[in-house]
Design a protein that fits this description.
The protein is about 45% helix and about 15% strand. It is α/β, with parallel strands linked by helices. The longest helix is centred in the C-terminal third of the chain and has 17 residues. The structure holds (~{Z})-2-methylbut-2-enedioic acid. (~{Z})-2-methylbut-2-enedioic acid (CIZ) binds next to helix 3 and helix 12.
Length: about 300
């Protein structure tokens, strides 16, 4: 910790940790949040170096919004398998098939896929961005479950892609039944990346930022948490008088757990690995992210 503090000071660095990071990383970070909150913080921060503790697409998004800063991703194995389920060529092919449709890409996508999109969305603003678009037909990539959730709640014709987050997609209706039986008083919050039949049985369908607010603001004291296990640490720390239970043991993302304090120290010492987006891609991807910010 001493070395970390000294390196942070010398490099004028801040450490940002996603809500799904391990407890030790959340505890040493300057800020904990969802990918958009952290990218906006990166853009505004009075710092030269941003250590982004999360997965690759998150560090890329921060690099897009903070082009004047050096963004480091402590471990290059931290890749999002959902983001890897679609390529820019796939998006171009979808656009050719549906020329009147707008293309919305989930924040869980590569910068190259964002560059092919009209706007990006996060789990917390997807419906608002969708409703602000004039198009009747919208291509939504890459998360099929979130796409189906948007189709059910927006009245738009949504063309979905069959990508999925392994952790959220593994949750089954049986997990809901078991959790309800064990914790009958608890509010069940599910992430929109879960299967539609699971989302339909939740009390609230929210991204991690929404879950943090719901836990803080609602009067209930027990919550079943239907998203990646890392969020339970933040919820418990911020609401010590309340109780939080995981919806399913499958809600675990291994690549989110590659960050360690040692890796953070090493990346601050070496200023590597860096999140870099090729300039030809960066301008178009940044436009898609900025469009989301404008629309919401
Ligand atoms: O936008 C994010 O950070 C992700 C991937 C999930 C969420 O709900 O916060």
């Amino acid at each position: 910790m001493e070395e970390l503090r000294e390196l942070k000071r010398r490099r004028q660095a801040i450490i940002l940790a996603h809500n799904y990071q391990p407890p030790a990383i959340q505890d040493l970070a300057d800020h904990v949040g969802d990918s958009l909150e952290l990218s906006l913080l990166a853009a505004r921060a009075d710092a030269e170096v941003i250590v982004f503790c999360g997965v690759d697409f998150m560090a890329e998004a921060a690099a897009l919004l903070a082009p004047d800063k050096l963004v480091l991703l402590p471990d290059l194995r931290a890749r999002c398998s959902l983001a890897d389920m679609i390529t820019p060529e796939d998006v171009r092919a979808l656009r050719a098939m549906h020329p009147r449709a707008a293309v919305l890409s989930y924040i869980n996508s590569s910068a190259a896929v964002k560059a092919e999109s009209d706007a990006t969305v996060t789990s917390s603003n997807a419906l608002r961005v969708l409703e602000a678009l004039p198009n009747e037909e919208v291509i939504f990539v890459p998360d099929g479950n979130l796409g189906r959730y948007l189709a059910a709640h927006s009245g738009r014709r949504i063309i979905t892609w069959d990508g999925y987050c392994r952790a959220h997609h593994e949750v089954r209706v049986d997990d809901v039944r078991t959790a309800r039986r064990l914790h009958p008083q608890a509010v069940l919050m599910a992430h929109p990346e879960v299967r539609p039949e699971v989302a339909a049985r939740a009390d609230l369908v929210l991204g991690t930022g929404g879950m943090v607010r719901a836990a803080r603001e609602r009067a209930e004291v027990e919550f079943i948490v239907g998203t990646e296990a890392g969020l339970l640490h933040r919820l418990t720390e911020e609401n010590p008088e309340k109780r939080f239970y995981p919806l399913s043991p499958s809600l675990w993302c291994q690549t989110m757990k590659y960050t360690t304090p040692d890796r953070i120290v090493a990346c601050l010492r070496e200023l590597e690995p860096r999140a870099q987006v090729p300039p030809g891609v960066a301008a178009r991807a940044r436009r898609a992210v900025e469009r989301m910010v404008e629309l919401t």
